[in-house]
Protein 1
Amino acid sequence: MELDFRKSPQILETIVDAMADGLFTVDAAGRFVSWNRGAEQITGYASEEVVGRPCRILEGPNCKGFGTIAEMLGAAAPPTGICDQQCKVQAKDGREISIHGNVRVLFDKASHTVGAVGSFTDVTSLMRANERIAILEEQTREQAGFEQLVGSSSPMQEVFRRLRLAAESDVTVFLSGESGTGKELAARAIHAQSTRRDKPFIAVNCSAIPETLLESELFGHVKGAFTGAVKDKRGLFLAADGGSLLLDEIGDVSPLLQLKLLRALQEREIQPVGDERTRTIDVRLITATNKGLRQLVAVGEFREDFYYRIHVFEIGLPPLRERREDIPLLVETLMEEFAKTYGKPVTGIARDALQCLIQAPWPGNVRELRNAIEHAFVTVAGTTISLLDLPDDVRSSDRPAASRALASPSRRDNRPAAIADLTPQQQQDRDRILGALEATGGNKTKAAQQLGTSRVTLWKKIRRYGIETG
């Protein structure tokens, strides 16, 4: 027998109550006429608690759409189609829930408003998941480190991006940059984030091994291959099999050894010194140099074919002078490390000492900065590093032209000279942060919530604007 829902309202009511979505109707005055079981389960309000009452429980903050139901009903020209609604409302037990639904105003034959019908769904879990994803994405974009590399500046964020890309593939990586910029740390980061992470990572400085021994170190040798070869040796390629091998200072390798490395990369096999047999290898090669290999190729000191074989995916590590905004973060990270190493409760650095570090030229880059902080830990007597605790050459070094703006004598609100020349918009932003920190008693988490931003963004701005948080 075919059912006619129009003649069987009980059946229709049963079906409506079986739905998980909230369904309701209101009269022309905005009072609830019906309220199904799905609406009860979502909000916690029973039908008898809402029917006959104004529909205010479906009104909440951040309402997006066509306004409240009462506003739609009372409009001079009520919307005639289905209206999407999204807002946060309070459930009976006090929970804040996010709902998304549709409302349609009902009209009689004379086009007079007679009420409305609507449905809504609980999207609280989805909204919270999206919020968590947004926070994670922002933290990823603004992360202050990647493995052991530290930096929140734009140049370092680009380095981190390319490191991730390299780690996701098995591409041959070429790391370039001045001495002390962290090329080995970058290589280790690629390996640690790659599918080879559980296999060996081996780094060798090609310039530190005599040319006569380097081939044996890389490819191994058999007993009796040369004077002193008293037993077989595997070599670094075989030792790193399945993992990653970093050849640092690749620019110092002789053309003859370059040719043998080229063959190893192309054929995926090596031949130990003095052995007629070859060995198959599975190694991810990473090379690094502080030299301009293009210039060496141009003058015939570096093989062009080998250059193009290793120069597949380049990642350039910026010198410290091009990312001075990272120096406070690097100093903080190094201080935490050396506080554990030396067992000293050093937790701060004087403003003039930090300013000196920001202005120094750093020809040795992060390695030189690291040495300066370690020197300070040796000499510091209290809990704060002073200017006199820094090495003499750092304190007396000429300031580069790029950093003279940081040393402006102009001061405002006792701010460091490095942030004295803020734009009006930056000054306003700084004042808002100061107000939020004061209102929350210095609690950065609550201050970030009050400002509507993440802790990472707030943390960066505090350092950028030279705000002291105690």
Protein 2
Amino acid sequence: MKNNSIVGVLTKLAVFGVCLFAVHYLLARAFPVCAAEGIYEAHLFLFVLTAVVMLVLKFIFKKMTQKQGLFGYAFMASSLVKMALAVVFLIPIIKSNADYRIAYAIQFFVLYFAYLIMEVVLVAKLLKQD
């Protein structure tokens, strides 16, 4: 299996997602006062969103040549769409009167940036291969 194949990229992302979930779960068990109700669904949402973005970027990278120089724009557009979807995902929580909404939003954005960093690392490796 090639290291930067679609399967390889998704495997790395899955291992990262499982490790991130395990760390978050253990921290929530150790500090129950910080646990936000329903935050584990955010893991699934962000994982699926990042996987879809990586699949789309991998497809675009395979179809276009480096001379076109449009891959950077595709990455920025996918990041913008991912950010907009994250905000749409958070709107019901933020508008609710739940006591945990601030903790939820903070934990969500920590997860969001963790997945974003992983996405940047995987895209950098993708660009390095060529």
